[in-house]
Amino acid sequence: MVEDPHWLNGTRAALKPPPKLTLSEWADENFVLSAGDANPGRWRT
Questions:
Q1: Which is nearest to 45 in space by CA: 26, 31, 28, 29?
Q2: Which of 3, 7, 13, 21 lies at a CB distance of 3.0 to 4.6 Å from 25, suitable for a disulfide?
Q3: How many Å apart are CA 9 and CA 21, to the nearest integer?
Q4: Dist CA 27 CA 33 (whole Å)
Q5: Which of 18, 44, 19, 20 is nearest to 32 (CA)?
Q6: Is pTM, for the whole model, over 0.70?
Q7: Which residues contact 44 (CB under 8 A, 6 or more apart)?
Q8: Strands 32-33 and 41-42, sheet pairing
């Protein structure tokens, strides 16, 4: 059995599609309110 070169694993990971998320799931993971906002910090649904 031949092993894949180490760089191939990184390439596969980079090309892997992102997980399917609902809009609210994406917002919970990625949206941050600025310090000047009434409720600063990570977005929570």
A1: 28
A2: 21
A3: 24
A4: 11
A5: 44
A6: no
A7: 28
A8: antiparallel
Domain ranges of the chain: 19-45
Task: Name the residue type at position 37.
Answer: D
Q: Extract the tokens encoding 4.
A: 């894949």
Q: What is the mean pLDDT of each run of 10 residues along the chain (45 residues)?
A: 79 90 93 92 87
Structure tokens at 34: 């600025």
Residue 39 is encoded by which pair of tokens?
A: 């409720």
Which tokens sit at 23? 């809009």
Within a 13 Å sphere around the CA of 28, how many CA atoms are in the beta-carbon half? 7
